[in-house]
């Protein structure tokens, strides 16, 4: 048996005292369904769907119609259980806690058959005192309730007035009342994603034992004092003091590369205690600041903090500290009504260019460190500098933010509320307050996060009356909105984090929304704040249809993923644009027709007599259409940065929807088969369906290998628009793709994300251009 045991020993020279002991309960657990008819092993961290798949009891959840076939999994009540023996003498410890970093979502927890607590929030961290129930040999159970059934019960119990929406649109094939459960909102379905309301222990679970006192949490914020022109560090440490007497000692904080060390005397009274320290960095020391990608280095400094406490107890922590300032500038603009909306990093105005981030998979145990790094490296390689972590997903894992710090990717961080109104009964608010306080404490030390946003589109949903609320009832919902996002979330942000701005929603009118009582009559105004803009009917090649707004935080167009991506989750009968599978996979009302309409404005639609060829060509054409539309709109926003036309403009951000897919289906994603759109710019003087003289291009490739990189030497017999290189299911990234090939030869590099061979690439390689359709 492999023991996941960490023993943190004291650093004192005499009479070493154990500071704390941490015993991980990761690994194999037992899982059973509600009536006990199905029992299987399952991994923690993990979820029921993954356990069933790993045991061969279900197919790939993304295969064909399995999002409907496997609804029973989410509607059952599952139990996770484990028996284990402590590898140490438990009686020697004054306090023993069970720590659950993430439980998905509704559960009752029993330890040695004693109920020790419950969970109701996927985004919270839970700690339960098990000192009086722990033994040498122990059992633990987490008895889950279906989040779908729980949400329905909570909605039914809310009898005073409805809290819409009840259910998602029918085309999404999802579950109802997701706004009544603090869980990943898109797990009940979205217009780009399936319904897989998971159950399980999705983050770490462990036992912590300690004497005297224990450091529960440690966080910090760099603050720049403009008047003194110097940096300070605000440090907060949370302790649980189990000694019956006060615990005194010293704290030593050191940042060697900044020639900074400071000592503090502290005394901790019994109970839960917070220590706040203020570290000054001498103005005579040059501090290198953290900059976004493309604007400078991402310099960080190693910091250690040592608590030398009574009883020979030493506790040491280390962290990387980054120094940067961020300001949200809302001020009058000459020649335009309203206010600006842009960010200054270290006093320098920055144009935010990037995308919106959704969860990388419906099943979080499949989101590996390698996948996160590859996706985020792709963001940097595409010359982006910003991602908006959208409010219908999850607060991402620590490594996501660490990578963003390292790579210089700015993060617009939503709180996890999206496209709905929410209840404000006391139990719901208590859960939200615990969630928000924990996430602020967990994330605020990351320089990459430049803003907190209270929700996604909920101000607009309320004020534009998405849910057809009677006008006389609107004050009730406005009061609830202000209660949740202003009197609770905003209050916690202002108290817990002084290092970055907060807005209540996206889109919002910013300062104007505040002036109008926290909800604006038109939250999508071009003269204030940020906008979300979608238009699938107007010609996307006509830049005049786009809003000349201050900041575009959402915009985009749908396309289908490549055939090689779809092939893995479909069968031959599915391979047509009008098949049952194609209609099922489309979760956006009218989406398939909208794509064909938009493509038909400038391209000839496929007319092959071969149905499979027509399907492949149609997929390819939707991707070409999407690339052109997003390119045109993005360039419009970038041009609008430095101009005011008809009193509108000064656009300082463009974040398209969305970076990557959650499953193999039509979506707004630019990364599907893990490939980037071409960075090369070009302009067509007419629609390509009207172009004269295009000949079918015969494109050949010679593939060679140079170390870990593969070289594709391409040769074409004619001008080839929108050349698309495809290597099937081999994950990786081309140095360019979707390009216009006007020269006879061109060299493209391929960077594989997994070990592969030249022969595998040669067998999988396929090239398409627009001339194959024409």
From TrEMBL:
Keywords: Disulfide bond, Glycoprotein, Glycosidase, Hydrolase, Lysosome, Signal. SUPFAM superfamilies: (Trans)glycosidases, beta-Galactosidase/glucuronidase domain, Galactose-binding domain-like. It catalyses: Hydrolysis of terminal, non-reducing beta-D-mannose residues in beta-D-mannosides. GO terms for molecular function: beta-mannosidase activity. GO terms for cellular component: lysosome. Residues 29-203 form the Beta-mannosidase-like galactose-binding domain. Pfam families: Glyco_hydro_2_C, Glyco_hydro_2_N2, Ig_mannosidase. Residues 695-773 form the Beta-mannosidase Ig-fold domain. Residues 343-502 form the Glycoside hydrolase family 2 catalytic domain. The keyword Metal-binding does not apply. GO terms for biological process: carbohydrate metabolic process; glycoprotein catabolic process. Its EC number is 3.2.1.25. Belongs to the glycosyl hydrolase 2 family. Monomer. Exoglycosidase that cleaves the single beta-linked mannose residue from the non-reducing end of all N-linked glycoprotein oligosaccharides. This is Beta-mannosidase. The lineage of its organism: Eukaryota, Metazoa, Chordata, Craniata, Vertebrata.
């Amino acid at each position: 048996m492999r023991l996941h045991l960490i023993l943190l020993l004291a650093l004192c020279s005499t009479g070493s005292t154990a500071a704390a002991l941490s015993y991980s309960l990761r690994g194999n657990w037992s899982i059973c369904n509600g009536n006990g008819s199905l029992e299987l092993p399952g991994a923690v961290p993990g979820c029921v769907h993954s356990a069933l798949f790993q045991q061969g009891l279900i197919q790939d959840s993304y295969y064909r119609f399995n999002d409907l076939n496997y609804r029973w999994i989410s509607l059952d009540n599952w139990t996770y259980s484990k028996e284990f023996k402590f590898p140490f003498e438990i009686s020697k410890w004054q306090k023993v806690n069970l720590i659950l970093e993430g439980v998905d979502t509704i559960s009752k927890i029993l330890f040695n058959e004693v109920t020790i607590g419950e969970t109701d929030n996927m985004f919270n961290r839970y700690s339960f005192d098990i000192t009086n129930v722990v033994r040498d040999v122990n059992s633990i159970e987490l008895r889950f309730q279906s989040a779908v059934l729980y949400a329905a019960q909570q909605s039914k119990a809310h009898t005073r007035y409805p809290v819409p929406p009840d259910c998602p649109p029918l085309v999404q094939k999802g579950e109802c009342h997701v706004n009544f459960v603090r869980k990943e909102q898109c797990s009940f379905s979205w217009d780009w994603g399936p319904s897989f309301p998971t159950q399980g222990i999705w983050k770490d679970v462990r036992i912590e034992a300690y004497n005297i006192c224990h450091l529960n949490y440690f966080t910090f914020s760099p603050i720049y004092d403009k008047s003194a022109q110097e940096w300070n560090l605000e440090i907060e440490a949370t302790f649980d003091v189990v000694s019956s007497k006060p615990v005194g000692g010293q704290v030593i904080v050191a940042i060697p590369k900044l020639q900074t060390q400071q000592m503090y005397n502290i005394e901790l009274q019994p109970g839960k205690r917070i220590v706040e320290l203020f570290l000054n960095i001498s103005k005579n020391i040059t501090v290198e600041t953290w900059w976004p990608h493309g604007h400078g280095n991402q310099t960080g400094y190693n910091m250690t903090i040592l608590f030398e406490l009574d009883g020979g107890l030493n506790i040491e922590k280390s962290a990387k500290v980054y120094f940067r300032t961020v300001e949200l500038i809302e001020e009058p603009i000459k020649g335009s009504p309203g206010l600006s909306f842009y960010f200054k990093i270290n006093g320098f105005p920055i144009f935010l260019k990037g995308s919106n981030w959704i969860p990388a998979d419906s099943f979080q145990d499949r989101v590996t460190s390698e996948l996160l790094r590859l996706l985020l490296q792709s963001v940097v390689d595409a010359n982006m500098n910003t991602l908006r972590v959208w409010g219908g997903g999850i607060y991402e894992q620590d490594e996501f933010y660490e990578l963003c710090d390292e790579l210089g990717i700015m993060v617009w961080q939503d709180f996890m509320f999206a496209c709905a109104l929410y209840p404000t009964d006391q139990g719901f608010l208590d859960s939200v307050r615990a969630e928000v306080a924990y996430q602020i404490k967990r994330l605020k030390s990351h320089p990459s996060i430049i803003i907190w946003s209270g929700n996604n589109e909920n101000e607009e949903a309320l004020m534009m009356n998405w849910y057809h609320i009677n006008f006389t009832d609107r004050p009730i919902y406005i009061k609830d909105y202000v209660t949740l996002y202003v009197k609770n979330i905003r209050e916690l942000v202002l108290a817990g984090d002084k290092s970055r701005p907060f807005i209540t929603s996206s889109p919002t009118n910013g300062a104007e929304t505040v002036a109008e009582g926290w909800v604006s009559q038109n939250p999508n105004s071009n003269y204030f704040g940020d906008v979300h803009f979608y238009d699938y009917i107007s010609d996307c090649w006509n830049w005049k249809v786009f809003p000349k707004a201050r900041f575009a935080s959402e915009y985009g167009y749908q396309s289908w993923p490549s055939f090689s991506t779809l092939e893995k989750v479909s069968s031959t009968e599915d391979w047509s644009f009008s098949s049952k599978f194609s209609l099922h996979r489309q979760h956006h009302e009218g989406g398939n027709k909208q794509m064909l309409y938009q493509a038909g404005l400038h391209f000839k639609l496929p007319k092959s007599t071969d149905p499979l060829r027509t399907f492949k060509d149609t997929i390819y054409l939707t991707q070409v259409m999407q690339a052109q539309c997003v390119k045109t709109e993005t360039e419009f926003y970038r041009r609008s940065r430095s101009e005011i036309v008809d009193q509108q403009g000064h656009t300082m951000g463009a974040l398209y929807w969305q970076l990557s897919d959650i499953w193999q289906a039509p979506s707004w994603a630019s990364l599907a088969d893990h490939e980037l759109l071409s960075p090369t710019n070009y302009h067509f003087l007419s629609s390509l369906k009207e172009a004269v003289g295009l000949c079918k291009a015969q494109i050949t490739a010679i593939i060679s290998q140079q170390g870990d990189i593969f070289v594709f030497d391409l040769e074409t017999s004619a001008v080839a628009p929108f050349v698309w290189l495809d290597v099937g299911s081999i994950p990786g990234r081309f140095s360019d793709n979707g390009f216009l090939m006007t020269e006879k030869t061109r060299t493209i590099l391929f960077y594989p994300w997994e070990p592969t061979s030249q022969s595998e690439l040669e067998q999988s390689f396929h090239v398409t251009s627009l001339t194959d359709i024409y």
